[in-house]
Amino acid sequence: MRVRAWGACASLWRVAILLLDGYSLFFRAFHALPEMNTSAGQPTNALYGFSVLVLKLLREERPVAVALARDLPGKTFRHEQYDDYKAGRPRLAPALVTQLEHFDELSQAFGFPSVGAPGFEADDVLATLATRHAASGERVVIVSGDRDLLQLVDDNTEVLFVGQRGKAPVRYDRTAVQARFGVSPEQLPSYVALVGDGSDNIPKVKGIGPAKARALISRFGTIADLIEGLNTVEPRLRTLLSSHEDRLRQSEWLARLRRDVPLPDIEPAPFTHAARERARELFEAWEFKSLLPRVAALPLQA
Predict the structure, then answer these.
(1) Which of 190, 224, 283, 284 supports an S-S bond with 288, CB 3.0-4.6 Å?
(2) Within this chain, do residues 93 and 229 fall inside the same structural domain, yes or no?
(3) Is residue 301 part of a domain?
(4) Taking the model in full, what pTM does it have?
(5) For the segment 147-165, what is each residue's pLDDT rounded down to a tens digit?
């Protein structure tokens, strides 16, 4: 089973394509680090933390090419179907909003495309990119702090889950997902339909815990098959699930990532000598002196 601390894998599983969940990682950096400012007063903790992570990924994963996915303003197709989707999330802190204005500048300095699609989430963009490259036989690693992306794990795709502050990132392959949740990666949306997802405001079925959800999904596979086979489960559970049929179908649909997002003709890009110079200049402008030797020591792909 490939559940291991980050950094122990490069020689075992060569990465070709690295896909970054841009805003997820950027937000995590903001909340993980104390306040930082340039001598002119510009807040920089998210920019610094994100840069540190990217440098570490380039050094340890040595990808052939990298792309970032980002969310675009406006509602997604999920919001159109479920008004309460992701409801209740707090407003972004002003210091984070200010730094987000430089997100594209930073990704462009590294030379990596930042891809978004109107009406879709960054997760759907990542799902589409990962599916496309894995189908071509390329090795893909998705880096995110969002567990929704674990459903994308397959024989050519792993997820490097960057958790909360103080917790080491964990790499998930198919076996690790099965060990952690008791279901396969493909079955995770069905599992979520039963246990809910507080971060996305997807409701759970009261009375169904993780153990019962694992047992049901392991037995039936999908919500549709579970509903079709309700006459074979014990009466109390049958009554409970029957009263939630529509919600279960909707929740599974909300949780399942789209792999067919219409994307611009943009390919992941390598880290080049020109990108190293741009990153160095940006780090000097933002007074990230400790990062200058790190970027100088990075291996180049082109």
Answers:
(1) 283
(2) no
(3) no
(4) 0.92
(5) 999 999 999 999 999 976 6
